[in-house]
From TrEMBL:
SUPFAM superfamilies: FAD/NAD(P)-binding domain (SSF51905). It comes from the Bacteria. Its EC number is 1.6.5.9. Keywords: Cell inner membrane, Cell membrane, FAD, Flavoprotein, Membrane, NAD, Oxidoreductase, Transmembrane, Transmembrane helix. It is found in: Cell inner membrane. Its cofactor is FAD. This is NADH:ubiquinone reductase (non-electrogenic). InterPro entries: FAD/NAD-bd_sf, FAD/NAD-binding_dom, NDH-2. It comes from Mycobacterium talmoniae. GO terms for molecular function: NADH dehydrogenase (quinone) (non-electrogenic) activity. Residues 12-335 form the FAD/NAD(P)-binding domain. One of its GO terms (cellular component) is plasma membrane. It catalyses: a quinone + NADH + H(+) = a quinol + NAD(+); a menaquinone + NADH + H(+) = a menaquinol + NAD(+). The chain crosses the membrane at residues 385-403.
């Protein structure tokens, strides 16, 4: 009688997230002798740096968010699962994800957590109702609806004050996202929408960029910050620094200046581009790894090899990791994921001793932000420059990192149309873009209420019985 042969199981790598960190990790494991599973709550790989161009009608969402499944189609050792990770069990070595009402438990030998960060309202989550953030495709489409919708409403408003309110746009947060968005709203009004309305003049709109900090683009230093500020002001953007937002409602926004005085800005369209909070998965992991903590933004204080204490095969990378001098930028995520996969590949060959790993080293390639067409600021090492050269550098770099040849070609065409001409190809808006998020929140609230009521009724019945 023959004994059944035991097929040795391949090493299982689970990657959470399909952003810069997750996708880099998955692609790096293409030839690894391992079964790779990518679990993400979104079906696509989102190129966040160009979200503001979706919000202002330059690019379509498909151009900056190709389907992860299609990117990895030819990678036979890799499976892509759509689902929101609800639980990570470091002891059992499992990840539990949920899609609709279906739960999937995926076991792992190595885990790479690249779940990124979400918008932070610094404890004022109620602001989100009227001031959406800029983190997801939904956010960008909602903003497009709100920005273009504000011009439409201004065209039909008969009251002067209401028309002015509709034509006032406030962007909170003077980091790269806020700067880029404010610049593009101003250009949209000045170039694309000019002459398209009959009762309003779009270029008369007010675009206000607010920040509680005393400078624009603080991480890029005083010189570049001032350069960007002056260029924005030339475009007509009002830059108000040292201005802390204290209230946001349907009618507008209240700010507190440095001297303590409070001011009201009546505005219909507000955008929140300030502050990030790491995914709650960071805290979940830290709670299971004794001696591991999260920082104020919820990022995991990882070991020098990007793992969590006591779990040498659990890596945290990207915006979710807290490593001194590594900014929450795409490069941090890409380099962190590359490092983690190198360790895993060495381990697969039996060459890894967790106690002897060389620490992760971040190579700062610089940073840049566009202000308007033909105008950007850039910092590469000690070199700081602005204007057309920086803009071209920005253009080439973004095309390089964009995934897929088709997306690169259509993006170049869209940029030609917008930057050399006046047109924008993505100017369609729908009511759903503007109202769906709030409607969905209301439905979720109702469902939670109904669930709580049913539980209460059951509890009362049990007590009575
Ligand atoms: C508007 C904007 C502009 C930016 N501009 C620049 C720029 O110009 N240059 C630059 O270098 N950086 C820029 N950044 C920052 C850069 O995009 C991030 O640093 C980078 O995306 C981080 O990569 P990540 O893989 O850690 O997270 P992300 O890219 O955010 O990916 C996180 C992934 O995790 C998934 N996920 C999250 N939670 C769960 C869960 N519970 N279950 C399953 N999946 C989950 C998400 O769906 C997503 O796929 C910008 C960011 C934003 C928002």
């Amino acid at each position: 009688m023959s004994t059944p042969s035991v097929v040795p199981q391949r090493h299982r790598v689970v990657i959470i997230g399909s952003g810069f960190g997750g996708l880099t990790a998955a692609k790096a494991l293409k030839r690894a002798d391992a079964d790779v599973t990518v679990i993400s709550k979104t079906t696509s790989h989102l190129f966040q740096p160009l979200l503001y161009q979706v919000a202002t009608g330059i690019l379509s969402e498909g151009e900056i968010a190709p389907a992860t499944r299609l990117i990895l189609r030819k990678q036979k050792n890799t499976r892509v699962l759509l689902g929101e990770v609800e639980d990570i069990d470091l002891t059992a070595g499992t990840v539990t994800s949920k899609l609709i009402d279906m739960r999937t438990v995926t076991p792992f030998d190595s885990l790479i957590v690249a779940a990124g960060a979400q918008q932070s309202y610094f404890g004022n989550d109620q602001f989100a109702t009227y001031a959406p953030g800029m983190k997801t495709i939904d956010d960008a489409l909602e903003l497009r609806g709100r920005i273009l919708g504000a011009f439409e409403a201004a065209e039909v408003a008969t009251d002067h004050a209401e028309r002015e309110r509709r034509l006032t746009f406030v962007v909170v947060g003077a980091g790269p996202t806020g700067v880029e968005l404010a610049g593009q709203i101003a250009e949209l009004a000045e170039r694309t929408l000019a002459g398209a309305f009959r009762t309003i003049e779009p270029r008369d709109c007010r675009v206000i960029l607010l920040d509680a900090a005393p400078a624009v683009l603080p991480p890029m230093g005083e010189k570049l910050g001032l350069k960007a500020q002056r260029r924005l002001e030339k475009l007509g953007v009002e830059v108000r620094l040292n201005a802390m937002v204290t209230a946001v409602d349907y009618q507008g926004i209240t700010i507190k200046e440095k001297d303590g005085s409070e001011h009201r800005i009546q505005c219909a369209c507000k955008v929140w581009a300030a502050g990030v909070q790491a995914s709650p998965l960071g805290k979940m992991i830290a709670e299971q790894a004794e001696g591991t903590e999260v920082d104020r933004a919820g990022r995991v204080l990882v070991q020098p090899d990007l793992t969590v204490k006591g779990h040498p095969h659990v890596f945290v990378v990207g915006d979710l990791m807290s490593v001194p001098d590594v900014p929450g930028m795409a490069q941090g995520a890409i380099q962190g994921a590359t490092y983690a996969t190198k360790v895993i590949k060495r381990a697969l060959k039996g060459h890894d001793d967790p106690t002897q790993r060389a620490p992760f080293h971040y190579f700062n390639k610089g940073s840049m932000a566009t202000v308007s067409r033909f105008d950007a600021v850039a910092q590469v090492g000690k070199l700081e420059f602005g204007g057309l050269l920086a803009w071209f550098a920005w253009l080439v770099l973004h095309l390089y990192y964009l995934i897929g040849h088709k997306n690169r070609i259509t993006t170049i065409i869209a940029w030609f149309i917008t930057f050399l001409g006046r047109g924008r190809g993505q100017m369609a808006i729908t009511s759903q873009m503007v109202y769906a998020r709030l409607a969905m929140n209301r439905v979720a609230e109702q469902q939670r209420g109904a669930l709580a009521a049913a539980e209460q009724a059951e509890h009362a019945e049990q007590e009575a019985g």
